Amino acid sequence: MNQDELKKQVAEAALEYVESGTVIGVGTGSTANFFIDALAGIKGKIDGTVASSVASAERLKGHGIPVLDLNEAGELSVYIDGADETNSQLHLIKGGGGALTREKIVAGASRKFVCICDESKLVSVLGAFPLPIEVIPMAQSYVARELVKLGGRPELRQGFTTDNGNIILDVKDLEIMEPCKFESELNNIPGIVTVGIFANRPADVLLLGTANGVDTRTAG
Ligand code: 5RP
Questions:
Q1: What region does 127 belong to: left with phi over 0, alpha with psi -120 to 50, or beta?
Q2: Whose CA, among 39, 128, 140, 194, lies 20 to 30 Å from 61?
């Protein structure tokens, strides 16, 4: 199976976590897109969705799936999204698509977070994937200097503006040994809007696409 087939496999497996008569959170990226396409087949089962990006909202609407404002939706039953990296404790790096802020908000507003990935995303230590950080534009240089002090090598994502009007710094050369602590530490730097480490609120379930089928994991 190629990587897209593995992504499609886990996206379809995630339908099992969609509860009837609820509003669900929907993520961003190529794996989330496979989920959106699969969700179209059972769209009558749910009351609606909250999207973590403008791109996902457009794709959902294209399938005739209702997209609600989070402020009107209240608590969501489940959030389903991909990741750039995951460790065995279901701490994640996210934000490769630049949607990390809304992803973290929608994940936080959901009772359960189901992460869908192909097996290439499972790592023992987070950080080989450059860590995306959303930053207020006027703080770019200051935040970059602080990140260098912490051992990272930040690079501006060229030509990219987030759905919230901010920039992304992708931070290379990190070995994130203590994801919860590092996430909190970065959250304290003024000018950082969102850090792409999802460790203090990790995924609850990981559906990992492998050549032998879907490997379902919980933190451990
Ligand atoms: C977008 C994300 C995505 O979940 C992450 O980049 C994984 O993407 P893909 O499913 O395309 O591999 O965090 O901001």
A1: left
A2: 194
> Which residue from 30, 86, 170 has its CB within 8 A of the most atoms of ligand 1, so it is best to mutate?
30
Express each pLDDT in 167-202 by its tens digit.
999 999 999 999 999 999 999 999 999 999 999 999
Q: What distance in Å separates the CA atoms of residue 49 and residue 166, rounded to the nearest whole number?
A: 25
pLDDT digits (tens, 9 = 90+) for 93-114: 999 999 999 999 999 999 999 9
**116 CA closest ligand 1 atom index:** 10
DSSP tag of 10: H
Q: Residues 90, 114: contact at Cβ < 8 Å?
A: no
Centroid of ligand 1 to alpha carbon of 4 (angstroms): 13
212: CB partners within 8 A, 6+ apart: none
Residue 14 confidence (pLDDT): 98
Q: Are 106 and 114 in contact (CB under 8 A)?
A: no
Alpha-carbon dihedral sign for residues 4, 6, 9, 13: negative
Rg (CA), the chain: 17
Asked if the model's pLDDT at residue 220 lies above 80, the reply is no
- Express each pLDDT in 32-89 by its tens digit: 999 999 999 999 999 999 999 999 999 999 999 999 999 999 999 999 999 999 999 9
